[in-house]
Amino acid sequence: MALTSLRVVEYGARVYRRTWRGSVISTFLNPVLFLLAMGVGLGTLVDEGSGGATIDLPYLTFLAPGLLAATAMQTAAGDSSYPVMAGIKWRKTYEAALATPIGVGDLVLGHLGWVGIRLVFVTGVYAVIMTLFGATTLWQGLLSIPPAVLTGLAFAAPVTAYTARLKQETGLSNMFRFGIVPLFLFSGTFFPVEQLPDAIEPLAYATPLWHGVSLCRGLALGLDFTVHPLLSAAYLAAWMVAGGLLAHRFMRRRLVV
Amino acid sequence: MTEPLVAAHALTKTFGDFVAVDAVDFEVRPGEVFGFLGPNGAGKSSTMKMIGAVSPLSGGTLRVLGLDPGTDGPEIRSRLGVVPQEDNLDHELTVYENLLIYGRYFGLPRKVIDERVTELLEFAQLQDRRQSTVEPLSGGMKRRLTIARGLINQPELLLLDEPTTGLDPQARHLLWDRLYRLKQEGVTQIITTHYMDEAEQLCDRLVIMDGGKIVAEGSPASLIAQYSTREVLELRFPVGTEDRGVGRIGDLAARVEELPDRVLLYTDDADAAAESVAARGIVPESTVTRRSTLEDVFLRLTGRRLVD
Prior knowledge:
Helix content of chain A: over 70%
Structural class of chain A: mainly alpha
Distance between the termini of chain B: 42 Å
CATH architecture of the largest domain in chain B: 3-Layer(aba) Sandwich
Oligomer: heterodimer
């Protein structure tokens, strides 16, 4: 199966060669805009106010690695929602692939494989920009790429599974509205989760993004971890594997009838 | 006799309580063009998907290329060509890339694919469109590309699900010509269609399906001989004509069928029947004499009710 899955990865790359222009601007521009507005703009206020004492770091430095993990999440969710829906329902390109020796397992594995490659590229660009802003050293920035990719895959797999069950696309915008955006805002990216009300704080630790942020921030800035990094990595890996298995199951139920 | 390429016994497909394919038996022999003819919802596409090893059987047995689709799916699919009813090309990619990707799905090396693409584009009359994206192509071009795509692995058996639905007459005739060439090259084909002329043009042998069951089987000519007469006399009357003389012409034909605007006489000599009708003083608005077609067989077997 592994070898045939590579053919699906190759397919992803080929489609990307046709469509990269649409996403490449945002890949480079988003980190710059976010780091400028939040890191530099808002950061100046935070550093001069009481925030500086709470986080004990320049705000830009604090923010950048968290945004790296959050960017990985958003990229992965984007690539595993509408394009997957197109493959299943709108363009039926998955149906076309399944008429060949390619199986459902190859489709899922190949899709996640290609998303992984995309994530290396997107987070790599991000890490370099982050260093250009002076948020971290290049070496430490690059070190935070693997956990960022893992964070992305921990979302890509369950989002693929979720999409495979959807009949209507409104479920996708709801997922972003009620899932991805709140995670983006409240998983320790912009402020430490200790700032959250005590009742909600444990919830933040349950989110995969918090663990991704924790790993990226710890590695990029050389900080101590509140949760052991291997535990965080294992937690993310568990989301990835469980999501992948579910994606396989739901996709099979949807496409092999 | 050579072993059949496809052999189905009591083949069944159910979706919940709904029986889409109801214990059908058929065999497809090497080199022939075999047709599934039937109204919408007759179970043609479900049967095709089972043959294509993409849809599991609900009951019965099925052998494709001597293999079991339940366990040898990838092996079977690697030797089949599939042209689905709905176009599922990748619209973002070029004509060439669509063929390349498909070839890669079959594990073919780039060099082999490139050689075949050149031949296939010529066959599909798409040489000029090689680098064009799929989106702007006409319906006929997309169909031809889908057929070319289905041939990239040089399949032993080509499955075509309603290959010309939605195409204009020129595009249909071009497609028929291409399919006939494939037949001459020895490619076995299974076609579903609800177009009678298509079935008559293309199929050596066909089965008529209705409500998930096979209701008749044979060559187009033998089906006409068995279920219809050589010719048909159509008497057209203005709608609402009180006396169409049906009671007086029963003996002139093997079968008489009354429709709101017409009376059909199934007979071996339509001209003679027309003379007799005139001699009995029945004067229709117009008369048409024609040969029997598969459509007459089809309507007789599946009825004139509308399937929605």
